[in-house]
Amino acid sequence: MATVNAARVAGYEDELGSLSAGKLADIVIFSGESESESSQSSHSREPGGSTKKRRDPYEQAIFAPQKSIELVLRGGKILLASLRLKDLTTTTTTTTTTGFCEDVAFGNANSKIVCVTDELGMSFGDLEASLGGVYPAVLPEIPPYEPSCRTDTYIPTS
């Protein structure tokens, strides 16, 4: 696994790199939507328009839509949770010194609970305001005219 090898190379395999007691870890939990619930997370578009089923868990995580993210933890602290896990955020924030959690819209009336005050030293709302309108902090989808990473596509800018 990439995290174990990276931790070994950096000399931190005793502190991180695997899910073990006493080690720090970042964890993302997805909802595991079925194919019918989100074709985006379970299929990829091939050249010519055909689709293929995503079976690799890494590929599923990379292409999962925002709505399928249920929980994000960094070092045991909740950074993001779905509304159905809101009770976890209220018990977690009582153990932090400055933290509180905010209900943030993630496009298309999909909300998540975001707890970043301890990590950033400011609320999510303050972070978004500090961006000055360049890009919103959360994008519901790829913006129109966003440059493609694919070399075989071209999107005109005007």
Automatic annotation (TrEMBL):
InterPro entries: Amidohydro-rel (IPR006680), Metal-dep_hydrolase_composite (IPR011059). It comes from the Eukaryota. Residues 33-59 are annotated as: Disordered. It comes from Xylaria arbuscula. Residues 1-77 form the Amidohydrolase-related domain. Residues 33-50 have a biased composition (Low complexity). GO terms for molecular function: hydrolase activity, acting on carbon-nitrogen (but not peptide) bonds. This is Amidohydrolase-related domain-containing protein.
